[in-house]
Amino acid sequence: MEKNVDKFLETLASSAPTPGGGGAAALCGAVGIALGNMVGNLTMGKKKYAEVQEDIAALNQRAEALRADFVALIDADAEAFKPLSEAYGIPKDDPKRQEVMEAALLAAVQPPLEIMRKCVKALELIAEYAAKGSALAVSDAGCAAAITRAALEAAALNVFVNTRLMSRRDRADAINEEANVLLSDGCTAAGEIYEEVYGRLN
Fold first, then answer.
1. Nearest to residue 134, comparing CAs of 69, 54, 41, 70?
2. Is 11 within a domain?
3. Max Cα separation, the chain?
4. Would 41 be classed as within a structural domain?
5. What is the pLDDT of residues 135-177, one digit of tens each?
6. Tell me, what CATH number does 90's domain have?
7. Structural domain of residue 102, as residue ranges?
């Protein structure tokens, strides 16, 4: 995604079909892990945190890779929506409509599901940043958790809006099951981080 923030938000606010909720979720995921990464960079080189320098350096590498993944998922979500948008235009009496719709729905659900997976991984890193990172930046770790939780929840809705229309209910149920586990695990992790940070600040 080679756009500045203003351009992205302008397009998001418009009547254009993409970016939509999935792209916004991916952007929030990128913001969340970037904040965690900032905590790490503010910790690097500080004598007070000499014992965790190697851990933080490793976290930073993983965070940078995750941020790139989230940014790539903004475009992936938009690309996956195109066939679905076209499928909605097929006449309802066309015998091929259901088959085309099913394939398009399955493709469209993949980016938001991957965003959810990345959010859970991001929250694992953010928990470590909160525990090991500079105390001066602990509020940023809490913000990172809150924003990543929002990304996770938004991505989940973009999964469910597609699976509810699938005719292959066995496949839809399997996707929903994974999404619900990711949603539960991620929200629990984000809540724990937020409460820990909140407690340290009050």
1. 41
2. no
3. 70
4. yes
5. 999 999 999 999 999 999 999 999 999 999 999 999 999 999 9
6. 1.20.120.680
7. 17-201
Cα atoms in the Cβ-side hemisphere of radius 13 Å centred on 142: 13
Predicted confidence band of residue 191 (pLDDT cuts 50, 70, 90): very high
In this predicted structure, the answer to whether residue 2 has a pLDDT above a threshold of 70 is: no
The reported pLDDT for the residue numbered 5 is: 86
Into how many domains does the chain fold? 1
Asked whether residue 61 is domain-assigned, the answer is yes
- Residues in CB range of 21: below 8 A, 6 or more apart: 112, 154, 157, 158
Judge whether 187 and 151 are in contact, CB under 8 Å: no
Contact 193, 119 (CB under 8 A): no
Question: 184: burial class by Cβ within 10 Å (0-12, 13-18, 19+)?
Answer: exposed
Tokens of 138: 């602990």
In a domain, residue 115? The reply is yes
Which residue do the tokens 């005719």 mark?
167
Tell me the whole-structure pTM to 2 decimals: 0.94
C-alpha distances in Å from residue 83, one per residue of 48, 75, 110, 120: 53, 14, 13, 28
